[in-house]
Specification:
Elements lengths: L2 H21 L15 H26 L7 H14 L1 H9 L7
Helix pairs in contact: 1-2, 1-3, 1-4
Length: about 100
């Protein structure tokens, strides 16, 4: 896999995984269903998905060559990007008009 394909793969995985906590009623996406699921669970799932996506990015980077060390700025910007990618799911879950009980 070339570098461009790896970047697009990580971005696509980040987009999907940032929205998964908002579309699932299950605890940690696999556990029992909760109606309604608390916001704290969704935030925990969002953080876990961000860590898994970061791990995928690190694995692809290590596979292509030497991993570069990153400072706190990289992680802060990555978390902000991940939260921004999850905005469509947030809007669908909390801001849509006339929402029904899912």
């Amino acid at each position: 896999m070339n570098q461009t394909a790896a970047v697009w793969l990580v971005l696509l995985v980040a987009l999907v995984s940032a929205n998964l906590p908002y579309f699932s009623s299950r605890i940690l996406l696999l556990g029992p269903r909760r109606q309604p699921k608390a916001v704290g669970w969704r935030l925990l799932e969002l953080l876990l998905m961000a860590c898994l996506t970061l791990g995928l990015g690190f694995a692809l980077e290590a596979r292509m060559g030497q991993r570069q060390p990153q400072g706190w700025e990289f992680y802060a910007a990555g978390l902000c990007l991940f939260i921004t990618l999850g905005f469509p799911g947030f809007v669908w879950r909390y801001l849509r008009r006339g929402r029904h009980q899912d």
